[in-house]
Design a protein that fits this description.
Layout (H helix, E strand, L loop, with lengths): L10 E8 L6 E8 L6 E10 L2 H7 L16 E8 L11 E4 L2 E3 L5 H4 L10 E2 L18 E5 L4 E2 L6 H4 L5 H11 L8 E5 L3 H13 L2 E6 L5 H7 L4 E4 L3 H6 L4 E6 L8 H6 E9 L12 H6 L2 E4 L5 H14 L5 E4 L4 H9 L6 E5 H4 L4
Parallel strand pairs: 10-11, 10-13, 11-12, 13-14, 14-15, 16-17
Antiparallel strand pairs: 1-2, 3-4, 3-8, 3-17, 4-5, 5-9, 6-7
């Protein structure tokens, strides 16, 4: 007979979980494994809410498992480290992102690209090496192998730093991989949400000229005055879009809703790159001819490997890059998801786990 989530492991844990595709979260008791030789155990202080959490709790991608404790933008303070751990000590600021395991032997893993491993283990709604279920960061404690933990610089606040572990690396990685981080380049950022506002911040830190592309004219002021973008395009304004044709070296498209790609492709210079990091539920139409005549590229990118994630957090510490957040109590999480569905947040919800997650 299989054990209950509360009795599966020796360390008692508490969080909030979704029980079915309704996506409604409520208090949940479960357990974590004991600290292994290569593990870091930490008290969770904050956890960001990612748009993919919304997809997962509602099983919109078709592979969710329940009960599910979401959360993969997890930060806290190390309380225990295993005997073989070298990079962390008790008291360190620790973070965990989207992945907590992989095969460690495939081509991707040997190149520090664990997130692309065919056997990657997600932080939640997945199964660990020992066959037990993984639970995420909407909870009081985490236990993770040292390889999948990130050391936070002392100067980065943990609440505003938490979204770096998904939103941050999701835009940092393609900028680096696709050669869009060279100073002086002109980058377009489609969408000004959790991912988009981080893309603007990293791009400006790299020394890029940044144009925000949005359907909402009302976002122009915040894009330029608040986030430091150089210019703004309303994607529904044909005159603006026509005038900007052929001006961008690359575009980071963060939009998860269905939208046309042809207007974006037209904005690219010859040899330009349109990189998709949002995940629309329905397929997008790809016009081939504009790609041929401009030798343009449509590409995708997920999160980065652990080496690059640490590099990104260190870069963020050096340049004081954090997310713009709204801190919420744990019992507000269901309302937060309703607002997230309406894009009613600037720009990332972060749950105050330490002060508002009560097991009573």
């Amino acid at each position: 007979m299989s054990k209950s989530p509360e009795d599966e492991h020796p360390r008692k844990a508490f969080g909030w979980a979704a029980r079915d595709p309704s996506g409604v979260l409520s208090p949940f008791r479960f357990s974590r494994r004991a600290t292994g030789d290569d593990d870091v155990t930490f008290k969770v202080l904050y956890c960001g809410i990612c748009h993919s959490d919304l997809h997962f709790i509602k099983n919109e991608w078709g592979f969710s498992t329940y009960p599910m404790v979401p959360g993969h933008e997890i930060v806290g303070i190390a309380t225990e480290v295993g005997s073989k751990v070298k990079r962390f000590k008790v008291g360190d600021k620790v973070g965990v992102g989207c992945n907590i395991g992989a095969c460690h032997s495939c081509d991707n893993c040997t190149k520090d690209l664990e997130s692309y491993c065919p056997k990657v283990i997600l932080t939640y709604s997945s199964t660990y090496y020992d066959g037990t279920t993984n639970y995420g960061g909407y909870s009081d404690i985490m236990v993770v192998n040292e390889r999948y933990a990130v050391l936070f610089p002392d100067n980065l606040p943990l609440d505003a730093g938490a979204p770096l572990l998904c939103a941050g690396i999701t835009v940092y990685s393609p900028l680096k991989y696709y050669g869009l981080s060279e100073p002086g380049m002109h980058l377009g950022v489609v969408g000004l949400g959790g991912l988009g506002h981080m893309a603007v911040k990293f791009a400006k830190a790299f020394g890029l000229k940044v144009t925000v592309i949005s359907t909402s004219p009302s976002k122009e002021k915040e894009a330029i005055e608040r986030l430091g973008a150089d210019s703004f395009l309303v994607s529904r304004d044909q005159v603006q879009m026509q005038e900007a044709m052929g001006t961008l070296d690359g575009i980071i498209d963060t939009v998860s809703a269905h939208h046309p790609l042809l207007p974006l492709i037209s904005l690219l210079k010859s040899h330009g790159k349109l990189v998709m990091v949002g995940a629309p539920e329905k397929p997008l139409e790809v016009p081939v001819f504009p790609l041929l005549v401009g030798r343009k590229l449509i590409a995708g990118s997920a999160t980065g490997g652990m080496k690059e994630t640490q590099e990104m957090v260190d870069f963020a510490g050096k340049h004081n890059i954090t997310a713009d957040i709204e801190v919420i109590p744990m019992d507000y999480v269901n309302t937060a998801f309703e607002r997230l569905l309406k894009a009613d947040v600037k720009y990332r919800f972060v749950i105050d786990i330490a002060n508002t997650l009560n097991a009573a």
